[in-house]
Write a structure and sequence with these properties.
Layout lengths: L11 H6 L13 E7 L5 E7 L1 H10 L3 E4 L4 E4 L8 E8 L5 E8 L16 E6 L2 E6 L8 H5 L3
Parallel strand pairs: 1-6
Antiparallel strand pairs: 1-2, 3-4, 5-6, 7-8
């Protein structure tokens, strides 16, 4: 089955309350995907999808994204073994952002640094100086062992 997406409706009410899923990709053909853990709701990552990645995600139930840096499709966890099985996909009111709820296999880690979440640092400001503080120091896998040299 090949999933195709219809163009978004120009009718705001239809877009916001209708049953047609018509994702609004940006001028680069991408849509933002916010990814959380289906069990405890932890924010794991933010990524982008093109139409092919979104269609593959819907068809297979495994999260696929589009890597802007590599300019290619990316099956999350294919190298690390931390595949993301999608339990639910939501879209926002104007269908230009997605929320994926996933279960992570393997080491239960999403970030390429080996941490569970890509959001492992807080931003703080003290005496006019802004800095980052690591709040999640637990490494679930060693990136060099999984990915080789970066």
């Amino acid at each position: 089955m090949k999933i195709q997406f219809d163009p978004p409706s120009a009718d705001k009410a239809e877009l916001e309350t209708g049953s047609a899923f018509t994702p609004r990709f940006d001028s680069n053909g991408l849509i933002t995907a916010v990814v959380t853990d289906a069990g405890d709701g932890v924010l794991l990552m933010v990524a982008h999808m093109n139409a092919e990645a979104l269609a593959l995600t819907i068809e297979t139930g495994i999260a696929h994204y589009y890597s802007r840096s590599r300019k290619s499709l990316w099956k999350k966890g294919e190298t690390s073994g931390n595949l993301q099985t999608v339990t639910e996909i939501r879209t926002d009111c104007d269908q230009d952002a997605l929320w994926l709820k996933v279960r992570v296999a393997g080491h239960d880690a999403t970030c390429h640094t080996g941490r569970r979440s890509c959001f492992y640092r807080t931003v703080t400001a003290e005496n006019g100086v802004t800095s980052l503080n690591i709040i999640d120091t637990e490494i679930h896998f060693h990136p060099h062992d999984v990915y080789g040299k970066n």
